[in-house]
Design brief:
CATH topology of chain A: Beta Polymerase, domain 2
Number of strands of chain A: 9
Distance between the termini of chain B: 47 Å
Strand order of the largest sheet of chain A: 1-2-7-6-3
Number of domains of chain B: 1
Largest interface: A-B, 48 and 70 residues
CATH architecture of chain A: 2-Layer Sandwich
Largest sheet of chain B: 8 strands, mixed
CATH class of chain A: Alpha Beta
Oligomer: heterodimer
Number of strands of chain B: 24
Helix content of chain A: 25-40%
Structural class of chain B: alpha/beta
Largest sheet of chain A: 5 strands, mixed
Number of helices of chain A: 5
Number of domains of chain A: 1
Helix content of chain B: 10-25%
Radius of gyration of chain B: 23 Å
Distance between the termini of chain A: 61 Å
Number of helices of chain B: 13
Radius of gyration of chain A: 22 Å
Shape of chain A: globular
């Protein structure tokens, strides 16, 4: 059957038009392939790990739907967990676990005064599929001249990544930490993700 | 104004941006190609568009504000070729209550999330039936039988199923195979489990599971496409879990405000957009392909934008068109454009010629099916969550050819399921089925009073055996009615085939003992419905066929790669004589699996098509290459 004649004239219809805006790429929460692959590798290596652990940092946040772009992995665990992770990721290890204290690149913003933020942990470092992985056992945080806080404790939430179940640090805890540090931009990002997850604000 | 706006050429143009185009857009942009997706509706943002306004039961359920505008997407319907087909002019209850897709994500914005694989038998229905019951069996049970097999076997589709399930975060726990061996032809073997665990089981689901297990059947958690957990797919797209608000089922299958309900908008399209190689054109109504009948090439498509301006979207000289439109829109566009060989039915011979439009089937339970039902007094969970597919159990044991059909007057069987969530939110309010005098006032209130705190629950099934393809059921262009732009709309000629009613009459009696064993009371079995005593009187998104995939270009339309056939050389030559037109989403044969499992069966085809398109694009400039081999 031949094609019908192709109209070349415009024709406006009087039917409702639902205007829409296509999101820009940077508005979409999409994990890069290297980070995704490393997540799966880590999840498989730490499957059934008896010690508490979870993916934290930006990687943990994006897995929970926060629009951030991680440049490395952070795994939060206990001191015993740090040893266990080292055993399981031994082939990827760059630095073995030891007590490390360092100052973060971003200050706490409390009131109008910036305070340096330090962290201390039983830390080790790995490189998995090209991605840097920092492991922190019993991470403590110190702001300015205040005392060190208690080792960070948490009940992980779980995210399925393709076919691997991985624990992540709960967004509620991250939001609380950021709020304490005055990092409201990060709180806002988490709130946006929470609003999309549960249509509620934390 | 007569200006025609020509857009920049790209490698691949996806027509319609629903489930199938989502896969192609993701896979092709991943492979580095430029892709344009054109869809007639908007881009839906689930938070901004649905989180507040979806609770407008009147506007969504009755006003159909999220649905496809009928001036653009209607059809005429008749039951046989001697009738005058009349158009669908409005969405009515209960007959036209199924939402059709409008915008990114398509019809999958509006479904209950039922999923599941077709079994191995479904792919070789004709071959296996002829072999077991004789070559005359299908012709005897199905007048003017036009059944054909899929081009590939289940085992060949299995890897594509796996990709599809990963992409969309399907929930389940295998398919009930006792061994999960690829040699199990009764159950869909899985090389990997579903990526997400099933939803929490309801008390009825648990009871059904233990009962049928005790009867020797093989139940498995009902498969759902609503994410049971937070998820990230293989494209890195993050997915929120279901919040069980109860508003995803109901009379209109309400859209999801957390994106947990799988569809292209929230699984594959975000990845494609994120690559920067995908351009999404919304509120754009494609009305024609420009087809060169000498080279068998399509060079461009024409569409109206939201303001009525005509745009031309060309492809690169070696580019490809992928038609991912819904059902009869896909067929209609081909017929409007002179693409493919249109099907023409000859009522005097009971046969037909051509392929485009041929083999229409309906993948849904007839409105007047034979049912078995009973009442359980178990203080059942009346939790008003939606996603009826979640929380229950299903079994394949009465599906396909998993029982002997010798001396029976039908083929195939039904997926038996029970225990899905009761709720569906607005569906608790009985308006989907219309309101009769007995359901108004006091009786209505009495019915609604205990909806959320159930002490009793109805259980039952309306078995659905496959609606088999025949020569007399088909789609063509209506000679009388047009869309708002003046182009003919499609015409559906369809009536339920005897297989549907004959199968139901038999299977209700197989299901009755299950209800008895479950402890149901007031069990009643509906009377058998004689074939052709009730007729197709509705359209819906479960219509299938009309653009089948197959190995016989004279019977099927698309090749195993979902590329357009009709010419033998298409299987073996390069684009110098081949067609640069691919499509997916069509079902060669339906089965007794749940309605949207048809989408699931089409899904693997979209991966197959994407693979075929990549092969085509890699070899299109080379002469005499079997790019589809």
């Amino acid at each position: 059957m031949p094609a019908l004649v192709i109209p070349d004239k415009s024709k406006h219809l009087n039917i409702p038009l639902i205007e829409s805006r296509v999101p820009k790429p940077e508005e979409l929460v999409v994990i890069s392939q290297p980070v995704l692959n490393a997540t799966i590798r880590i999840g498989e290596a730490l499957k059934d790990c008896p010690e508490k652990w979870a993916i934290g940092g930006d990687a943990g946040e994006i897995l929970a739907g926060v629009n951030v772009h991680p440049d490395h992995f952070t795994i939060l665990t206990t001191t015993a967990g740090s040893e266990e992770v080292s055993k399981r990721l031994k082939t990827f290890q760059i630095e073995g676990p030891k007590i490390v204290e360092r100052q973060l690149g971003r200050n706490a913003e409390i009131g109008l005064t910036p305070y340096p933020v330090s962290v201390k942990s039983f830390a080790s470092q790995f490189r998995v599929d090209g991605e840097r992985v920092d492991v922190h056992g019993d991470l403590q945080i110190k702001v300015g001249d205040w005392d060190w806080g208690d080792p960070l404790d948490f009940e992980p939430e779980y995210v399925y990544v393709v076919s691997v179940k991985v624990p992540v640090v709960p967004l509620e805890l991250k939001s609380e930490l950021y709020m304490g540090l005055g990092w409201t931009d990060r709180v806002k990002k988490i709130n946006q993700a929470m609003a999309r997850r549960h249509h509620k604000i934390v | 104004m007569s200006a025609t706006i020509t857009e920049p050429a790209v490698d691949v143009v996806c027509l319609g941006v629903g489930y199938m185009s989502g896969v192609v857009a993701a896979e092709l942009t991943k492979a580095g190609y430029t892709v344009v997706g054109i869809t007639k509706g908007p881009y839906w943002d689930y938070v901004n568009d649905f989180s507040m306004t979806k609770y407008d039961e009147w506007g969504v359920g009755l006003g159909r504000k999220y649905d496809s505008p009928l001036p653009l997407q209607s059809t005429t319907i008749r039951n046989n070729s001697s009738q005058f087909a009349l158009p669908v002019r409005r969405y009515t209850m209960p007959i036209q209550y199924h939402a059709l897709g409008h915008g990114v994500g398509g019809a999958a914005q509006h479904y209950g999330g039922g999923m599941g694989r077709y079994g191995p038998w479904a792919y070789q229905m004709k071959f296996l039936t002829d072999g077991r019951y004789g070559s005359g069996f299908l012709g005897n049970i199905n007048p003017q039988d036009d059944t054909h097999d899929w081009p590939l076997t289940y085992l060949e589709y299995e890897p594509y199923y796996k990709e599809w399930e990963k992409a969309h975060g399907i929930c389940g726990d295998y398919n009930g195979s006792p061994t999960n061996l690829s040699s199990d032809t009764n159950n869909p073997w899985m090389s990997a489990n579903y990526p997400l665990p099933p939803h929490p089981t309801t008390p009825v689901g648990t009871l059904f599971q233990s009962t049928v297990q005790g009867m020797g059947y093989h139940p498995f958690p009902t498969v759902s496409a609503l994410a049971s957990q937070a998820y990230t797919n293989q494209y890195g797209v993050t997915v929120n879990p279901c919040v069980y608000d109860g508003y995803c089922g109901g009379p209109c299958d309400y859209a999801c405000e957390t994106g947990a309900k799988a569809n292209a908008a929230y699984r594959t399209i975000p990845y494609a957009l994120n690559t920067g190689k995908f351009t999404l054109v919304t509120n754009a109504y494609v009305f024609r392909l420009t087809y060169n009948s000498t080279t068998h090439q399509i060079t461009d498509c024409h569409y109206y934008d939201g303001h009525g301006n005509v745009h031309v979207q060309p492809i690169n000289p070696t580019g490809v068109f992928f038609n991912g439109m819904w059902g009869y829109n896909m067929i209609r566009l081909m017929l409007l454009s002179g693409v493919g060989n249109p099907y023409v039915y000859n009522s005097s011979t009971g046969m037909g010629t051509g392929t485009v439009g041929r083999g229409l089937t309906n993948g849904y339970t007839p409105n007047k099916g034979t049912s078995v039902s009973g009442t359980l007094s178990i203080g059942a969970n009346g939790y008003p969550a939606g996603n009826g597919a979640g929380g229950g159990y299903s079994m394949f044991d009465l599906m396909d050819d998993n029982f002997d059909h010798t001396n029976l007057n039908f083929i195939g069987g039904t997926l038996v399921s029970a225990g899905g969530y009761q709720g569906s939110g607005p569906g608790n309010i009985t308006f989907a089925g219309g309101v009769g005098s007995s359901a108004m006032g006091g009786p209505f209130k009495a019915t609604q009073k205990d909806k959320y705190l159930l002490t009793k629950v109805s259980v039952g099934t309306t078995p659905f055996t496959p609606d088999l393809p025949t020569y007399m059921n088909y789609i063509d262009l209506d000679p009388h009615y047009t869309d708002a732009y003046g182009d003919p709309i499609s015409r559906i000629t369809h009536d339920w085939t005897p297989n549907v009613y004959n199968g139901a009459a038999y299977l209700v009696n197989q299901c009755k003992p299950i209800l008895t064993q479950m402890g149901a009371t007031n069990i009643s079995v509906g009377s058998a419905v004689a074939p052709y005593s009730y007729h197709t009187d509705w359209w819906g998104h479960h219509l299938r066929g009309g653009l089948r995939v197959g190995t016989d270009p004279n019977a099927g339309t698309a090749t195993a790669w979902a590329a357009l056939s009709g010419y033998n050389q298409l299987y073996f030559t390069s684009n110098t004589t081949g067609l640069n037109y691919f499509a997916a989403g069509e079902i060669t044969n339906t089965t007794g699996n749940n309605a949207t499992a048809g989408t699931h069966a089409a899904g693997p085809q979209s991966y197959r098509a994407a693979e075929g398109i990549v092969k085509y694009l890699q070899n299109a400039t080379t002469s005499n290459v079997n790019y589809l081999a």
